User: What shape does this take?
Amino acid sequence: MGMNIRPGKEVIRQMATWIVHLRIADEYIKRGLIPCPKEFSLGSVAPDCGYGEKDSFGDFSPPPDITHWAPGGVKLYCEYWKFASVYLQNKQPDTDHFFYLGYYIHLLTDVIWSRMVYNPTVEKYKEEFKRDPEFIKTIKIDWYDLDHKFLRDHPSFVPYQYIKNSGDVHDYLPYYEPGQLTAQIKYIYDYYSNSEQRVLDRDYTYLTEKNISNFIKCAAELIDLDLIKKGLLDIPEKTAYVNAVMPAARLRA
Assistant: This one.
């Protein structure tokens, strides 16, 4: 049984923040594409619900190679199409389906974040990383302060309200212990519930709100293409066009 209840988030440290994942989810909710938005929102943070110590190099249960379908725990090499094959393709679009869809979009988002944000940041600050192998913790002060600032400025942010009021979460996945999703999703809400000790109105060095907004826009476009090509979500304004111009394409983010 996991004793230290912290979402297992950072073995390889390539993952987007929880609020970035919820903001991606919101892109689909706002467009009216998700008939079960609560389950979808819960699924969008569910891959980060392993027991472990947040922002550490420690072990997690289950490990990221299982929760993120990523050999060796490397999110860049996540085999997200295998998750889709097991939980989404040729399935009825019931309530559970939208939890799994949120989970799947999370996996795609982490791959895109690795390429567009994490890896370029490591390259840009490679000298700092040589001097301090845990320099990512300095960088992540900006990442998480921007999360807190976004929630402060958007107090009615819909996906976060679903996290706040998640209650008892169904045990959707066999690799999580009974009740683990409930406990860990509650922790995610608690983590963001108090920002009094943070300085949010300041200059941001390593990531800015504009960077995040641009990432979300770009990531959603890439994810749209993947969902359409796999037949996982009908996006009326795009589906016909994508199927016409990319009939044989198999997108990998």
In short: The chain has eleven helices and no strands. The radius of gyration is 18 Å. Confidence is low (pLDDT under 50) at residues 1-12, 248-253.
